[in-house]
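Let us work through a complete example step by step.
Step 1: write down the sequence.
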Amino acid sequence: MLVVTDAFPDSNIFKFENVTGEDAAKIVYDTLFPRGPLGAAHTKIFINGSNFDMVEKVVEATQKSMASAPWGTSVIVDPRGAYSTAAGAVAKILGVSLDKKFGILEGKNVAVLAGTGPVGQTAARIFASEKANVVITSRTLAKGQVVADKINKEVVAERVKVVEVTKPEQTATAVKNAEIILSAGAGGIQLLSAEDLKKHATKCKIVADINAIKPVGVEGLESNDDGKEIKTGVFGIGALSIGKLKIKIETEMIKRATEAPQGLFDYAIAYDIGKQNILKKLAKAKAETASKEQPKHWLP
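Step 2: predict the structure and record it as tokens.
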């Protein structure tokens, strides 16, 4: 809501708490009908919440209700900022991979630590959509498998696997083949030690963390690191660097939703915004470098 207020300080925000799928239809119809299609065009629905399963049910019910109405409006989905954070993290990783000549994400081996949390499973979803091979960690194998099965069904391929991690030493199994590691855990919890990164993640080239609260998720990674070489051949992306792009993504998502007559603005839109932002930035840097390197021709 803070981002909405910053982007549109004159907007009115009406907050509904503890909304379930059963509540969605009433809220949608109350939004659309009282002021007609022209009035409804100035009202947008933002679905938030910390219960990921319930958020998905509310989204599904909202879309169903919208489809049955004679007109609709835009729906923004970003549960507790998880979609925009995950999109920002994956986009920043793609940027570093391209900048350091490691290539695109397709075919890369990725480990997402805390992969069943809101950010973790969204990031895994995005990595899988980019055709990366993903390992997610979970404290419960069954819970992780539910997430993996869901994503694999969505991308129509077996791209996501699960490693159960109930104690720190099990992290070594999850990261042993990873070229990219994303720590997506809660604030103040270290998921990857410097020793694990050095001894077990020997194939790692990029490591990123969404946690800015100390201890951060990756030991030795600073929150402001932005493609910094934190050990030989390993480049780090800290939480605050991801956060800067996350805010840009969420702001742009909200602006696009206000301009569109209807549509769903979710993690896929969020990632596309972040990805395009990174690609434009890289293209600009490349053009500036080429301009500086152009040979000077002197007239006799």
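Step 3: interpret the result. The mean pLDDT is 94.
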